[in-house]
Input
Amino acid sequence: MKINKKKIFNLILIIACGFILYYGLVLSLGSTLASLIYNGILYGKYNTLFISELVLLIFSLIILLLRKKINILIKHRMGFLKSIKKGMPLIIISLLILLSNIYDLSSQNIDILNLVSLIFLAITIGLAEEFLFRGWLQNEIVDSYKDNRRQIIMSIIISGVLFGLVHLINAFSGQDIFTTIMQVIQTSAIGILLGSIYYISKNIWSVVALHSIYDFVILLGEVNSYKDCVNNPNISVAMNIFTIIITICYSVIYLIGAYFILQKSNVYKITKEEITEEIIKKDEYNKNYAKKLIIVTVIIMLLSSMFIPIEDANNIQICYEYEEITYTEGEINYSKNKEFILDNYKFYEKNEKLNIDDLINNKTYIINIKDVYNIYVYKNINNYVIILNCIDKIYYLESNLIEVNFDTLDELFIEFVTPEIKKLGYFEVNNTKYPLLTSVIEDNFIIKDKKIMVMK
Output
């Protein structure tokens, strides 16, 4: 057999170029990229939520294994891109929200670590929740009750509504009831839409992608903030009515999308048999519907900006901003003590309250501030500085405690809303000590001039 030297030479050249390119990228970008991902996951704003969702993802995979549904990861009826197109309602609204958030962030420097952290969180949410609600729950219901067309539709609706109802748990995390109910309505509609896409396509990865992209663009608006904004509970009745209308409009768009997906895929003709490849091939996405949906969605967004009550426009949410301060030198001090004895006083936490023992008079004072789970006390010249760590709040007091009525001492504390704080201490510079608060992602804050400042 004659050896083609030219082909061999070309093959060697291609392999050599491939290795040079591969190792060149690894050496030049590999460590930088690895460091970015590592620091983003470890110190990014969303690291705690990411780990929480990662646990849920593992749980979802275990459920799929136990129920012998793990094959959903590889068995599909429809290609990824074709299936993605079915999610036009989510794609349109996600794009509009993305453009709005990009506009708001255009004047800021994006926090790269937070952005990396957000990307991983959004992907993990999409994987965990879609594996659980579409991959397991919806398949479980459909496989058990798909005797006729009505039961198929009801199975998709039930799994979608359950997906929405799960978001009621946000009310236990401090979210107000009104916002939670609006969220449940909208996520139920999204769940039905995603369930319809999944039932027709059997492509779990397409609904994972749609879900992840939607969550990413929703959260992107606050990627730079140290603490997420919260909904203002004191907005007007007109604003509440407006919110209800917009929620219903979006939900209707999602439900119309689900209706068209199921109708165009002949789901009403299905009895006990699966959708065949022939039906899938005949199914063409309704382009007129897509155009109408784009127009309706854009009109809703424009109307929302026109008719929103002007006086409430800037008060829909309460956002916390912290002044930045820079120090080139200074010393950070922490303590693992659970109680502090200074002069004639003993300070300690008991039953989620600050307790102060007067060691001379043998009296104990209980300060009426709730949910205290960590304290820090030190002396700054002649004053006692007391820091109380509560859920998303810090209470701060600086006083000499002389001629102070301990029974009303709680009224002297200053309250600050902060990100989740894990360590308390003080920062000393030029012989002055400032209360130091370190968040779970290692951001450092000090209290100066009765204000929270973030150290850069």
Summary: Confidence is low (pLDDT under 50) at residues 268-285. Residues 323-455 form a domain with the Lipocalin fold (CATH 2.40.128). Residues 287 and 293 are 10 Å apart (CA to CA).
